Amino acid sequence: MDLFGVPRSLVIPILATVFFYIVMRHLASRKIDGREPPVVGLALPYLGALIGMVVQGGKWLRDLAIQTKEPIFTIAMPGSRMYIVSDPALTAAVQRNKNLSFSPLIPEATQRILGLDAETVKIVRKNLIRENNNERGFIPDIHDMVYAYMAPGESLDELSASASVELAKLVRHYQSTLQALKGQGKVEDLLLWCQHFVTVATARFLYGPKNPIDVDSENEDAFWDFDHGLGFLLVNVMPSITAKKAYKGRERLVSALQTYLKEGHHKTASQIVQNRVEISLRHGWKIDMIARGELSFLFAGIVNTAITSFWLILHIFARPDLLAEVRGELASALGDLKSAHAANATTIRNQCPIFMSIFRETLRVGSENSSTRIVLADTVLADQYFLKKDSVLQVVGGAMHVDQRIWGPDANNFDPYRFHEDRLKKQDKIHPAAYRAFGGGATLCPGRHFATNEITSFVALVVILFDVEPVGGGSFVIPRKRDNVLPIHILEPVRHVDCTIKLRA
Ligand code: HEM
Ligand SMILES: *[C@@H]1O[C@H](CO)[C@@H](O)[C@H](O)[C@H]1NC(C)=O
Ligand SMILES: *[C@@H]1O[C@H](CO)[C@@H](O)[C@H](O)[C@H]1NC(C)=O
Ligand SMILES: CC(=O)N[C@H]1CO[C@H](CO)[C@@H](O)[C@@H]1O
Q1: Are strands 80-85 and 370-375 parallel, antiparallel or unpaired?
Q2: Is the per-residue pLDDT at 3 higher than 80?
Q3: Which of 227, 235, 304, 489 to mutate to test the pocket of ligand 4 (most atoms within 8 A of CB)?
């Protein structure tokens, strides 16, 4: 006998499944404390979030946060909770709350991504979180040194100047190859072009003349292979198979860095790298493992800078009127730059408000970074929201960067003047925690001043010296960003941007 066409033998299993589903949905939408942030029920309870993030990357979380419109909400995870924040004031509270910390994730993440051995992970774990009076761990030591070194002051200026000079040398060399072509341009993939300059220059100013990129140019490709498979390395299930290219790239660079360190070339590196190596040795790292640790610094120094430079150049050259304005601003600030000189970042920052605004807007539109925190102890956020110990909290930068309540009705558009100092003076202040490009709180990017100097100096020189046009003429169409990946850095475009680079008439 059939019931509405369903064979009787299937009725009980179907009813049981529906019942199980309803129970799961109910459990997954229950608060574990009356003050817990509102729980968002997913079509697929518990597993929906995991599957969404694996399949759609950062886009999944961003779109969920945009739809939900709550300042904070809860998702039930298998055996745990995830709290999603996309409100500036709450973000500031997250950043202040001592029971929310990124640190517990460091040992596991660095072990997977860099391939650290058990002994080194033990060193990383030791005194990871600052306590009042105990001995200082490796992570707090290295953190404090890097933040102090890259804070405004003499050491930052020195590092910025050497970065500008190395980049300028490469740009000037490219200028001379164009001169030899007598007016004809060269066709380039704009992202690869930026990546190449930034990779070579960064390796030089951080690691000195014997750096691993200069000693073997194949290491440059190895570096980007490593970058493009970072998500799979983080998953770390037989990485030599599931993340083959990234794994091979990483091991190739590690081996080059090991040789570099064993031969003592770090003594000719920048002071910040020398300090890093010294701190690692002091905490008992073996040379082979220091090589792995340095790969993470090379990564921090290169990837965001290269991709941001690409977007900045594209945003400027895609808008002819804007290009003319920027060139006018740069010309009156920097004067004649015909000689071998780099563009002075301090001068640009002080005298080129449109250019600086475009830089910041490029990062607002390009950045999808989430700041992740672990809840160390049951806590009440902003005197209002209960957060359960051992849960994960994510501040979803990608959602805040397109929030009309923060940026106004044109939040989705690229507005080159959005961060112009004159406009900022006139309007209501935007909450400082709303701008997530450099993260915030304890994990605020220590390289933010440096990166700003480096990128603006590099791109200014490109804008002054070259014309960048789409192959075949017309104007650039700006591609979307590839947002279905884990956002571990500024997102790349979904497609290549081929361009012709010519000397400016
Ligand atoms: C446009 C360029 C850059 C962007 C957008 C950027 C962004 C970020 C972000 C979002 C974080 C993590 C913040 C969080 O999780 O809340 C970070 C961390 C970091 N960045 Fe940058 N960064 C850039 C350039 C650089 C450069 C050039 C360097 C160094 C030369 C650097 C060094 C670091 C380091 C060392 C960390 C880890 C800090 C820690 O100990 O927690 N960054 N960066
Ligand atoms: C850039 O200009 C500032 C003053 O405008 C000057 O103090 C600084 O030394 C210059 N930097 C470089 C690298 O020339
Ligand atoms: C942080 O956790 C400790 C230990 O559970 C607790 O006493 C303290 O009130 C918490 N702090 C906040 C801000 O919730
Ligand atoms: C959650 C996430 O993707 N965070 C990333 C933000 O950016 C920094 C630096 O690029 C990464 O280290 C984080 O993993």
Answers
A1: unpaired
A2: no
A3: 489
